[in-house]
Protein: YceI family protein
Organism: Exiguobacterium profundum
Amino acid sequence: MAKTYQIDPAHSSITFTVKHMMISKVKGEFKEFDIKANGEPSDLANASVKVTIQAASIDTNNTDRDNHLRSGDFFNAEEHPHLVFHSTSFRSKGGGEFELTGDLTIRGTTREETFEVEYEGSAKDPWGNTKHAFSGEGSLNREDYGLTWNQALEAGGVLVDKKVKFEFELQFTESEA
């Protein structure tokens, strides 16, 4: 029987890392997101996933930087409040590892992206709810989505790298479809 899966935000995170000044890394996360998933637990190849991230929920532990990231130089969160991912395929690589491919939309630009996903397992919580956990990672070129602001450095290179690495730890609660 088909199942639906609701994200457990208290036990889930979507984080990112980007190089700063070509020598160090800045980490951040999106604090507000929703994920809808459905499919057969025994056959994830038929699963579908929709991720909606609130652009304004970006948090790098620096208020000035976060406000700049929300501005028109980057996410333009006022005009483009959401980052959205719609899955198109969920391909098993064996051993609980998968390639999740789909259409990612940022700032009105949609491109196909693929993320590596690992099924971490399932368990019943103390209240009888079935939980499923996944971790994953991937990277993208932020300039492909119109996030092109940058500043040249006197010694060469740029202030913000164009490659952004994502990691996620997700826990879902299962329910009947």
User: Anything to note?
Assistant: The chain has one domain: 3-176. The mean pLDDT is 89. The chain has one helix and eleven strands. Residues 3-176 form a domain with the Lipocalin fold (CATH 2.40.128.110).
